[in-house]
Amino acid sequence: MTKAHVRILLLAAMLVYGVVDARAKTSGVQANGWIVLSTLLFSFLIFSWYRLDSDARLYRRTVLLNIGIVMAAIVAVPYYLVRSRPAGQRGAALLRLAGFGLLMIAAGVAGGTVYLAFAPGVA
């Protein structure tokens, strides 16, 4: 598996997350196993990307950063990008991360919109 595969899987998972979230909201479901499953799935995929990227860059992973990537990716991934990139590439890496974050949001919104547009009985 490559980093590109992991990014595609993250976008696909977010699309599915949007569908499931819209369904849960329209059917009045308060809590379900999907929240736990999706959290584990996203953590696994983000850590997989981090592992592949750090191996490709010969960046030594620390236990604390490993834990941070799994538990607080929103903070740990930008930290990793800044630490693992040469001085001239740090800003570009952070901009690509922000762009990917926007793509993730768009995928979630698209999934919810598709569900609401095509689900029977949803006004």
Automatic annotation (TrEMBL):
Name of the protein in question: Uncharacterized protein
TM annotation in the entry: 34-52, 64-82, 94-118
Entry keyword set: Membrane, Transmembrane, Transmembrane helix
